[in-house]
């Protein structure tokens, strides 16, 4: 009976171990928010434990995740303790024979042992703090850009600064997750680009470059930037300030809403991105047309349609547009069927 009861959990553990975590963008985001020392993050048993917790949270809540054992780490700590004590006593013996003051100084020199742990965890905290600071700054300048009472000169400058800040934040995330190219030559850059081209941060980086370098000012384009900044800021505040009275009084409700409605924000971003593509097509018939920007942006939309991080939202939006537009084309403009079919073949290629 006990073996039969354990069989479902064994199957779930096998499924969790076989899951493709590297191609799930949620895993990279989940792992980047786990605060553990780097020497523990390199251990396979620690990584496997957090993979099972990720699988329990996002894939199969029925998986039972056992607490991580610390026997190996405690044993290594206990084994290193006698060695350090013996070495310290052997070094302190001649000093004690010299004077009592020397023994006191040697005793105080061995006290600050926790400093390596704090310095080991500080890079992860610094990375998150930098991301939070940049995204909070992006939210501030984005609000200045869309606020109607702001002077035009200041509004346009804030508009470009919002895109520049998001581009820097996305590039920093790519560096933190994928590192830099192994060498600065064409072949190494091509290999690195192939590994990051489907990442959501890379898509946002290209998105921001498309608008920060354009003379066309579309405040509508700030919607995806604001949605991304809200997600990052709310996540950081909930992880690090959930015990603050100021956070609980003014920010907790908003942060909880943002984290519980990330799907809604992603749908809103995809709608804005597709709407921008249609606006750029319309702008080709005005004096503000930019053929190169329109072509590059539609290439980006095609990439968003196929990238795993954004494909679900974009494909659903395009399917909704097709259900409304195709009957109108067949009824009022049947001659457009051939060029639309050609465009669809290029789009799905």
UniProtKB/TrEMBL annotation:
Keywords: Membrane, Transmembrane, Transmembrane helix
Biased composition (Low complexity): 69-123
Region (Disordered): 66-123
Protein topology in the membrane: Multi-pass membrane protein
Gene Ontology BP terms: endoplasmic reticulum tubular network organization; membrane organization
Pfam family, one: TMEM33_Pom33
Compartment annotation: Membrane
Transmembrane segments: 132-152, 158-178, 202-226, 267-287
Family: Belongs to the PER33/POM33 family.
Name of this protein: Transmembrane protein 33 homolog
């Amino acid at each position: 009976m006990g073996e039969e009861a354990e069989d479902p959990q064994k199957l779930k553990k096998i499924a969790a171990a076989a899951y493709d975590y590297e191609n799930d963008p949620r895993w990279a985001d989940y792992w980047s928010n786990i605060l553990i020392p780097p020497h523990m993050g390199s251990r396979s048993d620690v990584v496997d434990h957090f993979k099972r917790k990720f699988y329990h949270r996002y894939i199969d809540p029925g998986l039972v995740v056992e607490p991580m054992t610390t026997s190996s780490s405690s044993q290594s700590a206990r084994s290193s303790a006698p060695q350090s004590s013996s070495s310290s006593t052997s070094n302190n013996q001649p000093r004690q024979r010299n004077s009592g003051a020397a023994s006191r100084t040697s005793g105080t020199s061995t006290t600050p042992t926790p400093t390596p742990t704090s310095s080991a965890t500080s890079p992860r905290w610094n990375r998150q703090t930098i991301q939070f600071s940049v995204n909070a700054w992006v939210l501030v300048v984005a609000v200045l850009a869309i606020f109607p009472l702001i002077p035009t000169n200041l509004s346009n400058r804030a508009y470009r600064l919002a895109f520049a800040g998001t581009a820097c934040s996305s590039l920093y995330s790519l560096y933190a997750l994928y590192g830099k190219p192994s060498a600065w030559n064409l072949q190494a850059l091509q290999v690195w680009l192939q590994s990051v081209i489907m990442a959501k941060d890379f898509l946002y980086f290209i998105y921001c470059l498309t608008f920060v370098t354009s003379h066309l000012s579309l405040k509508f384009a700030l919607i995806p930037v604001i949605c991304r900044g809200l997600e990052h800021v709310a996540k950081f505040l909930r992880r690090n300030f959930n015990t603050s009275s100021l956070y609980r009084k003014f920010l907790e409700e908003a942060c909880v809403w943002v984290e519980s409605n990330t799907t809604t924000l992603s749908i809103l971003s995809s709608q804005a991105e597709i709407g921008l593509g249609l606006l750029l097509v319309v702008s080709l018939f005005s004096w503000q047309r930019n053929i190169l920007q329109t072509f590059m942006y539609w290439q980006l939309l095609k990439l968003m349609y196929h990238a795993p991080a954004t494909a679900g939202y974009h494909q659903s939006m395009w399917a909704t547009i097709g259900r409304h537009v195709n009957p109108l084309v067949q009824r009022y403009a049947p001659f457009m069927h051939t060029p639309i079919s050609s465009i669809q073949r290029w789009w799905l290629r």
